[in-house]
Amino acid sequence: MSTEPASPSTDLPARAKAGRGPWLFLRDILVILLVAILVSFLVKTFLVRSFYIPSGSMENTLQEQDRILVDELTPRFGGYDRGDVVVFRDPGGWLPATYEPPQPPLAAAVDWITSLVGLTASDSEDHLVKRLIGLPGDHVVCCNALGQTTVNGVPLDEADYLKLGASQSAPRELEYDVTVPEDSVWVMGDNRDNSQDSRYHQDQPGQGFVPIENIVGRAFIKTWPLDRLGMIDGHHDVFSGVPDTEPQ
């Protein structure tokens, strides 16, 4: 049996491969991270997006600081339905102006990356979440003798999701009698007496309507805290008797 040492030419590839090992590992990790960020970006942009709830305007359906996922894809094909809980960009003047000092570059980069992968929802403060009550062409009126909102002449029994006081059978009345224009919707919060929604912006240029193009998507699940994990009910049965147009 030969006991001669391996020749330099034979041993060189093995040593070179061993020397490149850590760099190959780091390269693979970097590629995996970049792919994960790209996939998360695509998911956030076109499929699902995470938001947290900054106020109590949708109680008891959504509590302050709940985290939700929003379906951005399905409404692009099927549109929206009355009763959907929707997240939308401020139509203008609904939210108070806020000033955020510029972040250091490193902090901004970390915030951007974590928002892509759904660990944060840094733009939640720039969006609102409400229940869709009126679609384009709907005639929405407050209120009948029972204090109920009517849509195309049909009263809505919203008792299953409205937050009311112990002595209340209906929210405080705030007059509105509107016909929703094309490409817009009328929205209201489930905590009707504590929700700055379409009703409170009728005197603004948009007259309280939310352009459909401002809607990010339909909220469909609560993800946090874990004891509130569950689907978000659109209560579409409440609107099942509403015709597409008001009977003449």
TrEMBL record:
The active site is at 57, 130. It catalyses: Cleavage of hydrophobic, N-terminal signal or leader sequences from secreted and periplasmic proteins. Residues 27-224 form the Peptidase S26 domain. Belongs to the peptidase S26 family. The chain crosses the membrane at residues 29-48. One of its GO terms (biological process) is signal peptide processing. This is Signal peptidase I. It comes from Microbacterium marinum. It is found in: Cell membrane; Membrane. GO terms for cellular component: plasma membrane. It is a single-pass type II membrane protein. PANTHER family: CHLOROPLAST PROCESSING PEPTIDASE (PTHR43390:SF1), SIGNAL PEPTIDASE I (PTHR43390). The keyword Nucleotide-binding does not apply. Pfam families: Peptidase_S26 (PF10502). One of its GO terms (molecular function) is signal peptidase activity. Keywords: Hydrolase, Membrane, Protease, Transmembrane, Transmembrane helix. Its EC number is 3.4.21.89.
